[in-house]
Amino acid sequence: MRVLVTGATGYIGKRLIPLLIEQGHTVICAVRGKLRTEHRYRAEDHVIVVEADFLNPETLENIPKDIDAAYYLIHSMSNSIDSFHQMENDCAMNFKHYIEQTNTKQVIYLSGITNDTKLSKHLLSRKNVEQALQSSTYALTVFKAGIIVGSEVLLLKLLEI
Fold this sequence. Notes:
This protein is α/β, with parallel strands linked by helices and about 160 residues long. About 30% of the residues lie in helices and about 20% in strands. Strand 4, helix 2 and strand 5 (about 105-110) form a beta-alpha-beta unit.
């Protein structure tokens, strides 16, 4: 399968990509800056690193259209709570609009635990992203996790395709 990984330079992305490669998938790593990542996978035949900023929809054209599955691991950061929420929403909507134009059948999203009725602004944003990613053109699987501190093994088992 051809699998897109957004958030490829983050904690989860960096640990997920080698497992996907090991399973025989071709991995498309979407990163804002190739220089931070490209050297890591230079020797890998089944890795394609593309520059794409989900706040800038024009850059998404760098992502191939022939994708089978995608991991949405983007978490926007900003000093302003208002900007943070808007950035999260914009990234999710831009991702969704682009992915709906591809062959993608499955999107996997890593969210926070949003079961409570009173949520922090951060968790409310995670819940809103989950709703924004819903689509009739692909299946959405949402994994909800608290703060991720440790074991790669347990976490990566949860994220396997």
